[in-house]
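Morning, I've got a small favour to ask if you have a moment. I've dropped the whole record in just underneath, so have a look.
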Amino acid sequence: MSSSSRIAKALATNSRLFRAPGRVNIIGEHTDYNDGLVLPTNTALYTWLNISPRSDRTIHVTAHNLGDSQSFCLDDIRRSENPGWLDYIKGVAAQLEADGVRLRGAELSIDGEIPIGGGLSSSASLELATATALLKISAAEMAPERISEICQQAENLYAGVNCGIMDQYSVACCKRGEAILLDCRSLDTMFVTIPKHISLLITDSGAKHRLPDGAYNNRGDECRQAVDLIAEVELGIQSLRDVSMPTLQASKVHLGERLFRRSRHVVTEIIRVTEAFGALQSGDPVKLGALVSASHSSLRDDFEVSCDEVENLVEIADACDGVLGSRMIGGGFGGCVLSVTYTERLEDTISKISNDYGPIIGRTPWMHIVSPTDPAGEVDMQ
C-alpha cells in the first residue's frame, strides 16, 4: 500500500490531507549557509500528513513509515539532548508559536515516500507539511517564504542541524516544471523551466547519512573560521559569498590548506550555480552536465564529504552513454547521486546503472526520475 493510500485510509470526517514534496538540488551544495546561490527543484516524492483538530493543546503524532507514535504539549515544548524525528515537528510548532501563532492541538498521521538520509530533504518536507497543516487548522495565514524561514529555524534549534534556507524554501516555493535560482542572502529568486530533452535521475548509493552526527555542522564551523580569518585582512567580508577567487588566493597562506580548500569549494560552487542556471535557460545539457561533474569533484576533493559508495556510483553513472554528469546531492557522507541525462537515453541509463551498481550493494538500487512538482499544500479530496 502506498504512503498516500495509508494516510487516506486514516482520514476522519473532520480531518484534512496535506503533502509536501522532496527537494532535489541540481547544483549549489553547502552554499546556502554561506549566503550563496543554489539551484533546486522539487520532485514528486511526498510526505503525506493527515490532520484533525483536538480540543486540548496536545499534538499526537503517528509516523506510519517509522512505526512509532509520540505526543507533546504545545504549552511545554522542550529541546531534546538527542534529537529524533519528533523534534522536527516540535520545533515547527514551537517556532510558529514564537512567531505569534496560537496553535490548536491536533492528531497527526504521517507517512512518507522520500528516502530518509538520501539527500532529498525528507526533513524539510516533514517540516513544511507540518507547518502548513498546523496553520490551516488554527485558522492562521502565513506567506510561504515566511513558513520556510520558520521551518529552517526549527531544524537549526530543535533538530540540531545548522542548515541554510534552501531546502525549506524550495519545498515551500518552487513551481511545477521549474527550478529556482535562490539567493540565500536576499531571498531573491528567478525561475527557469527544465527543458524536456534533459532528464534528472536520482540513484540511492545505499549509504545513509545523518546530518546531526557532526561532520555536516563541522563544515559550517570551518567556513565561519575561514570568514573570520579572511575578514582580518579584507574589509567587508561577512560570509564566503563575499569572497572572490583573487581574494581567496591571496589568503591561502593565512587560511592554511584545509580552510583554503573548504572555502574554494564554496566560492567556485557559487560561480557554477550561475552558469548552470544559464545552461538551463539555453537548453544546453552538455554544459549543465560538466558543471554538475565539476561540483562533485569539488565536494569530494575540497569539501571532503564523499564516501566509497558514492564514488563507485558516480563512476558507474558517468560511464553510461546518456549521462552528461553526476554528483552527490544533499549534505554528503552518503545519500543519493544526481545524474544529468539525455531524456532519449534515460531508460538505457537506468538499466545500466541498475545492472552495474546492484551487485556492489547486493540489491537493485532505488532510482527516481525527477518530476518537478508543486510546493507544499493541502490536497483537495473532492
In short: The mean pLDDT is 94. Residues 3-193 form a domain with the Ribosomal Protein S5; domain 2 fold (CATH 3.30.230.10).
